[in-house]
Amino acid sequence: MPPAPFAAAAVATVALAAAVCLGAAPTTTPVLGPKGEDRPQQIEGGRYLADAGKTLAPAPQGVSSYVADPATARALRAGVNDGRGAELYVDNCAACHRSDGAGYERVFPSIAGNARVLASDPSSVIRLILLGGRLPATSAAPSGLAMPGFAWRLSDREVALLGTFIRNSWGNHAPAIGIQDVSRIRRDIERTAAHF
């Protein structure tokens, strides 16, 4: 059971979860350039990156892109977890978001190519990992789907490693998440929860 401050603060993440789960779950096909050419789209500023083939390290600060790449899915399926971020993903996320990061349409959102995951500010990803989220039940979808929060079980370092892994797998290419970013957001959550 998560600590009370995080349970109370989870109420504030419903809109974020809805945006990620419903509004920002693009397909896993490559983003196309202005004339249909298969080029990686730079998320910030609408410009295109010049070299899609060299996206193994996290992107420089402020630069995010996506070009579908099955290498992560192949490695995870083969049991190759070549870092703590990959291990954390397999242990905590893959059951719902799958080894290919594609999720399940209309149930669990795709992480691959997800605009919220690729945002230059990683705060939404960090908050979602810490607090989880819940979609409200509707008449069209009577089961309110939920993602558990992991604040109670993951350290700031582990959240940073997991977030960096999902921001740089399946063709995602975004700046790394720093431990200090996670610590700051965790403190903010605790402060906010203290007011409830």
Description:
This protein is mainly alpha-helical and 196 residues long. The protein has a domain of 135 residues: Cytochrome c-like domain (Cytochrome Bc1 Complex, Chain D, domain 2, Orthogonal Bundle), CATH 1.10.760. It is 39% helix and 5% strand. The protein contains nine helices and five strands. The chain has a three-stranded antiparallel β-sheet with strand order 1-2-5, with no helix packed on it. A two-stranded antiparallel ribbon has the order 3-4. The longest helix has 16 residues. About 27% of the residues have low confidence.
What key attributes describe this structure?
196 residues; mainly alpha; Cytochrome Bc1 Complex, Chain D, domain 2; three-stranded antiparallel beta sheet; two-stranded antiparallel ribbon
Short summary of the structure?
The protein has 196 residues and is mainly α. The protein is 39% helix and 5% strand.
